[in-house]
From TrEMBL:
Role description: CRISPR (clustered regularly interspaced short palindromic repeat) is an adaptive immune system that provides protection against mobile genetic elements (viruses, transposable elements and conjugative plasmids). CRISPR clusters contain spacers, sequences complementary to antecedent mobile elements, and target invading nucleic acids. CRISPR clusters are transcribed and processed into CRISPR RNA (crRNA).
Domain of life: Archaea
Protein known as: DevR family CRISPR-associated autoregulator
Origin species: Ignisphaera cupida
Record carries keyword Protease: no
GO biological processes: defense response to virus
InterPro entries on file: CRISPR-assoc_Cas7/Cst2/DevR (IPR010154), CRISPR-Cas7/Cst2/DevR (IPR052681)
Keywords: Antiviral defense
Matches recorded under PANTHER family: CRISPR-ASSOCIATED PROTEIN CAS7_CST2_DEVR (PTHR37459:SF1), PTHR37459
Length: 323
């Protein structure tokens, strides 16, 4: 099974995107985006602030640690103590390593992957995050690359500093290869389950996505500047056996993201009918931009918020892991 999701987040991204400042200013991470021109002829290049996929992955790992500790799931000492170690080391400096043992003994390494160069042991991440980028198709406002922050210089007393906030709808994509969790290739390259309670691990890996988004576990400087933040829309798909990616949760003139995903999913199921492809879709829409959606060959479930959306997804996945 493969889970793909795209979220619409209304956020003051300024505060989520702080780069560590040693000088007086810190610049934002920016991305170049193509915006369709109003006259329908071609595109215009727009430079906009963004949050890197790596920053989001870091927040996700923090969420995993927190949930694993609360639920008493296996987690290694290095990941448990990531704060004092300055991040997630994941045994990267070890000289030996056993893939199966590492996966079994730590949910963070199981779900988010690792590499031990000297031991030539690596695991690609089961979870993937896109950059969090503004939805420039539906909005023209608050995309100004000139945002900056004045911070105290080292050795000086902290100076009062200004934070300019920019509000925008940001889009974030997440993909999770569920078949990978708790599984390593055996000597013949066939998948082999190596954890005792795989369903619980899968559930926790999905819960951590909600924890990340609802619990605001990414972004910097929250102690002094908690951003205004809301998940206003989302679309998600569980596909099997051929992975299907939802459309990015952008609003364009021609079609909303849920309708677009439903149409694509419906055709995808027809295309892979010989492989018995199935897709279940889930969405939430606080902005009321999504019209009535239905397709003969796709199950579609609506939710009111992120927690409900994730709960419904977990129900479906747990059931199919049991069956
Ligand atoms: Zn670990």
């Amino acid at each position: 099974m493969f889970l793909s999701m795209s979220f619409r987040l209304r956020t003051e991204v300024e505060a989520l995107n702080m780069v560590e400042a040693m000088g007086a200013y810190s610049r934002h991470r920016t991305v170049s985006l193509l915006k369709p021109r109003g006259d329908g002829k071609g595109y215009r290049l727009v430079i906009a602030p963004a949050v890197s996929g790596q920053a989001i992955a870091f927040g996700y790992m923090k969420s995993l640690v927190e949930l694993a500790q609360q639920k008493n799931l296996p987690i290694c000492d290095q990941c448990r103590n990531y704060e004092s170690k300055g991040g997630f080391v994941k045994h990267g400096t070890d000289t030996s390593g056993d893939l199966e043992n590492l996966v079994r003994s730590c949910i963070v390494e199981d779900v988010t992957g690792f590499m031990i160069a000297k031991a030539e042991v690596r695991r690609t991440s089961a979870i993937q995050f896109s950059y969090m980028t503004p939805d420039i198709d539906s909005s023209d406002v608050a995309i100004d690359p000139q945002f900056h922050v004045r911070a105290a210089k080292p050795g000086e007393k902290p100076q009062p500093f200004q934070v300019e906030s920019g509000t925008a709808i940001y889009v974030l994509g997440v993909a999770l290869d569920i078949d990978k969790i708790g599984v390593v290739p055996d000597s013949n390259g066939k998948p082999k389950i190596v954890v005792a309670n795989r369903a619980e691990r899968v559930k926790t890996a999905i819960q951590a996505i909600a924890h990340l988004l609802e619990g605001l576990s990414f972004g910097a400087k929250k102690a002094r500047y908690l951003p205004v933040y809301d998940v206003v829309g989302a679309v998600a798909a569980i596909s099997h056996p051929v992975p299907f990616m939802v459309s990015p949760a952008r609003i364009s003139k021609d079609m909303d993201y849920v309708t677009k995903t439903v149409l694509r999913a419906s055709n995808y199921v027809k295309l892979f009918s010989d492989a018995k492809e199935t897709i279940k879709l889930f969405y939430m829409d606080k902005e009321n931009v999504v019209g009535e959606v239905k397709a003969e060959n796709i199950d579609i479930t609506k939710a009111d918020n992120v927690s409900e959306l994730v709960l419904k997804i977990i129900e479906v996945i747990e059931k199919s892991l049991r069956d």
